[in-house]
Amino acid sequence: MGKREASPISTPSYPSLQDCNSSSADSAASPPRSLRSDAPSRAGISSKASVDVNGEPPSFHHSRQGRSNLGEDMSNGAVETLSEVFDPVAALAPEPVPPVAGGGEANGAHSEETISKGGKREIVLGRNVHTTCLAVTEPEANDEFTGDKEAYIASVLARYRKTLMERTKYHLGYPYNLDFDYGALGQLQHFSINNLGDPFIESNYGVHSRQFEVGVLDWFARLWELEKNEYWGYITNCGTEGNLHGILVGREVFPDGILYASRDSHYSVFKAARMYRMDCIKVATLISGEIDCTDFKAKLLDNKDKPAIINVNIGTTVKGAVDDLDLVIKTLEECGFTQDRFYIHCDGALFGLMMPFAPKVSFKKPIGSVSVSGHKFVGCPMPCGVQITRMEHINALSRNVEYLASRDATIMGSRNGHAPIFLWYTLNRKGYKGFQKEVQKCLRNAHYLKDRLRDAGISAMLNELSSTVVFERPLDEEFVRRWQLACKGNIAHVVVMPNVSIEKLDMFLDELTEKRSTWYQEGGEAQPPCVAADIGSENCVCALHK
């Protein structure tokens, strides 16, 4: 048989993202095939677009309908070829500014807030999403000859990597350690590693990393002072899963128990209460964000007939406050709750790894479980966490799974087998002393930031043994977005992580003070807000509290 000749073909044109800067009216009339447009473009159109009964903007359906004709559009030139200066991030509309949290609405998902000055953008809470996406398109039949699609994909990824590197420079508001190097683990990325079921029982699935997982769990058990034969745990997919598991164990131990959590607890704690249909009582907090044990005592006495399941925060989300574990236990005892009538879960998502060097978290105290995030202070590149509980409690949750030839007491089924290897790698390289040095560096730099803010006349607060610096919310939401600050009401915060250097803090401070001089001009109408109600009068330097 002779060599088959390829028939003449036309070179396909892959999508350009430049069309996403067009107006919403143009989009509705002839939507770009390469993008889904869920909301108005960056052309200054109001984001209060109508939605249909399915909760989807009209333009979403236009894009859906257009996808079937993508190949035709490519052939006839309706879709432009990829520009040499194409930047996928420049093509994306800027991320909407963070909505004002805690604005007083009972149901924030349906409230609206004007965020930026001059009415430039209104955010509909619950619709605060990216306005465009990079569409998935079907390969053309001739791609194996032209390689155009591969070139397009490579171009998108290269520019996306550049964007990530740029955004990392201005990352201050969220507790992720971006200082890591896992090049040595690249050789393992070609394997589908899955730690199904119980970490301590090998299942029928042989491509796993249980030996690494158990090594990591042993390390944390030692850190929190629990013997090997007295603990059970696993590596979770995130910090929320650790809370879901810890509270579930408490609920299984005390099916009629009441969940107590401070108002400043992470939202996943209240999510757990809804999921498990538990009675949940919110406890007041002190100005620092720490649980108010006076209010806790009153609520315990009102419900003495029911066991207590308590969430103790080892670093709250916004203020970085640490609940006084010893005082919580003392309060329980004063209210007549013996150790067989309460279960304590410690949410240590961030500070669970910082606090032991104080130390405060220990299974020598009557606690039931501790969870910590692996992608925060440790610096794992994928979300993960560690959950440790007492062996005596886990039997209430564990079940045989014949399909796996194992037992299971985890929340999820399949579990990322790469995460334990990343954690094991970091723990071995740094060890206890390495983490101690990083904790000390973070605390030192956090104090530096707080002092510089106060010197600049900016209200600021820093809790003891915390690296979360809380300060008055910047007036300019573009500045908030640039530095990726987390905000709630009148306050914002910076979480000082190991990758946050003095140089980065200086750059942030210089820019903040320069911007602030334009927001609050001497004798002008706008004046710095009073945040005494949020961080205490001793930390507020407004005109009233100077």
Automatic annotation (TrEMBL):
<dbReference type="InterPro" id="IPR015424">
    <property type="entry name" value="PyrdxlP-dep_Trfase"/>
</dbReference>
<dbReference type="Pfam" id="PF00282">
    <property type="entry name" value="Pyridoxal_deC"/>
</dbReference>
<feature type="region of interest" description="Disordered">
    <location>
        <begin position="1"/>
        <end position="74"/>
    </location>
</feature>
<dbReference type="InterPro" id="IPR002129">
    <property type="entry name" value="PyrdxlP-dep_de-COase"/>
</dbReference>
<keyword id="KW-0456">Lyase</keyword>
<dbReference type="GO" id="GO:0016831">
    <property type="term" value="F:carboxy-lyase activity"/>
</dbReference>
<feature type="modified residue" description="N6-(pyridoxal phosphate)lysine">
    <location>
        <position position="376"/>
    </location>
</feature>
<keyword id="KW-0210">Decarboxylase</keyword>
<dbReference type="GO" id="GO:0019752">
    <property type="term" value="P:carboxylic acid metabolic process"/>
</dbReference>
<dbReference type="InterPro" id="IPR015421">
    <property type="entry name" value="PyrdxlP-dep_Trfase_major"/>
</dbReference>
<protein>
    <recommendedName>
        <fullName>Serine decarboxylase-like</fullName>
    </recommendedName>
</protein>
<dbReference type="InterPro" id="IPR021115">
    <property type="entry name" value="Pyridoxal-P_BS"/>
</dbReference>
<feature type="compositionally biased region" description="Low complexity">
    <location>
        <begin position="22"/>
        <end position="43"/>
    </location>
</feature>
<dbReference type="InterPro" id="IPR051151">
    <property type="entry name" value="Group_II_Decarboxylase"/>
</dbReference>
<comment type="similarity">
    <text>Belongs to the group II decarboxylase family.</text>
</comment>
<dbReference type="InterPro" id="IPR015422">
    <property type="entry name" value="PyrdxlP-dep_Trfase_small"/>
</dbReference>
<dbReference type="GO" id="GO:0030170">
    <property type="term" value="F:pyridoxal phosphate binding"/>
</dbReference>
<keyword id="KW-0663">Pyridoxal phosphate</keyword>
<feature type="compositionally biased region" description="Polar residues">
    <location>
        <begin position="8"/>
        <end position="21"/>
    </location>
</feature>
<feature type="region of interest" description="Disordered">
    <location>
        <begin position="93"/>
        <end position="118"/>
    </location>
</feature>
